[in-house]
Amino acid sequence: MKAFLKKVLAFGLGSMFLLSPLQAAEVEVLHWWTSGGEAAALNVLKEDLQSKGIGWKDMPVAGGGGTQAMTVLRSRVTSGTAPTAVQMLGFDILDWAAEGVLADLNRIARQGNWDAVVPLALQKFSKYDGQWISVPVNVHSTNWVWANKAVFEKVGVTVPRNWDEFVAVTKKIKAAGYTPIAHGGQAWQDATVFDSILLSVGGYDFYKKTMVDLNLKALGSAKMVQVFDRMRVITGLLDPNFSGRDWNLASAMVINEKAAMQIMGDWAKGEFIKAGKVPGKDFMCFRFPETQGIVTFNSDQFAMFRVGSADTKSQMEMAKSVISPVFQSAFNVVKGSAPARTDVPNSDFDACGKKGMTDLASANMNGTLIGSMAHGHANPAGIKNAMYDVITNHFNTKQSSRAAVKALVAAVETAM
Ligand code: GAL
Known about the structure:
It is a single chain. The chain has helices spanning about 1-10, 20-25, 35-50, 65-80, 90-100, 105-110, 115, 120-125, 150-155, 165-175, 185-210, 215-220, 220-235, 245-255, 270-275, 310-325, 325-335, 350-365, 380-395, 400-415; strands at about 25-30, 55-60, 85-90, 125-130, 130, 135, 140, 145-150, 180, 260-265, 285, 295-300, 300-305, 370. It folds into two domains: about 1-135 and about 300-345, D-Maltodextrin-Binding Protein, domain 2; about 140-295 and about 360-415, 3-Layer(aba) Sandwich (D-Maltodextrin-Binding Protein, domain 2), CATH 3.40.190. By secondary structure, the chain is an alpha/beta fold. A five-stranded mixed sheet has the order 2-1-3-13-6, sandwiched between helices. Strands 9-10-8-11 form a four-stranded mixed sheet. It has a three-stranded mixed sheet with strand order 7-12-14. The chain is globular and about 60 Å long. Beta-D-galactopyranose binds near residues 65, 140, 247 and 298.
C-alpha cells in the first residue's frame, strides 16, 4: 500500500490524496552511530520520535567520522533514492546545500526561534544563503584525553599539564607495562590526534591560519615540522595492533585497563558510560596538554533531503524533536556531547559533560572556539581528505617531518 502511494506521489498526484498517518509518519535516517555508546544515544532519538508516532527506518553506515556514510549518501542521491534525514558534519552540509537538494527548515526554525538559541558558530553550518537547511543535534569537541584512573594511580602519575609532562607520564606508563595510548589506525583517527597536536604546538592562531585560512606559508613553516615531530612521538606510544582498529575498541582498551589514555573526541565518553564507568572515579577527562582554553568543535546535524511532499511532515517533526531542549539534554547526556543550544541546563550532565559545556561557553566568549579539521568543520571535504592522506601516510611510515610538511603544502595547494 505504501509503495503504491509513493508511486502515485511520484506521478504528481499526491496533492489529490490526503496522506495516511502511516505514510506521513516515517523517517529513513542515514547515520554512522553504530558503536555501543552511539547506538544508546540514537535510541533516545528513536524513542522520542516513536512517542510522537514517527517510525524509524534505520540506515546505519559503520565507520567513525562518517567517511563511508558520505560515500553511501552520494550514491543514494545519485540513484534518486536520497534518505529523508542524514547525519552530517560542517562543510558537507554546505556542499549539499549548494547542490539545492536540502529541504527548507525556515518555517519551523522561525517558530522555534532557532536564531536566538543556536550559537552562531553552529549556524554557520546550519544555514545556507541565510536559510536554515539543517538542524544541529550536539556540539562535540576533539581536543580531549580519556584516561583510566586506576592505571594512573598504579603507575603513580597525575594528569599532565604540558607536552613535556605528557611525554614523561607516557614513559612511566610504558615502563610499567601498559600501552600509553590506545589508538585506532584509521585516517580520521590519525587526523583527530593531529587536531590536538597542532593546537598544542601553535595554539588557536596557528590552527586557524593553517586549517581554516589554508595559509601556505604557515602550513610549510618550522612550527608545522614540530607538529609532525610530536605526531612521531605519538606513534611510539601505541600497541603493535593499532592498525585499522575502530575507535570504540581503542576506548575499550582504556576502559579495560589495557591502555592508559585515548586522544579522542567526547563521543568516547559514551563508551565509558555505556560500560557503567563513572567520571572521576573510574576514568578522567582532560583537555590535551597545552590546549586548555581552546576548543576544536564539531556539530552533528541532520539535514533533510527534498524527497517529496509525503515525507515533509515527518521530516519537520523530526527537526522539531531534535532541537527541543528536553531532547537536547537527554540525548547529549548519553552521547558525550554538549547541547546545540545555549539555554539547556547542565543539571543532568556528569562532571565531564559539565566541563565540556563550560569549556564550550567560555571558548565561544573568548574567541577560542574553532572548527575541527578532522571532523569537517575547518575546511571542505576536498582539502580535508588531502590533509588526511598526508597525516596518515606520515603516521604509518618512517617519513621525516620535513618531508611530511612539504607533502602537506603540495596536497593543499593541489586541492585548493
Ligand atoms: C564524529 C561524530 C560523532 C561520532 C564520531 C565517531 O564525526 O561527530 O558523533 O559519531 O564521529 O563515530
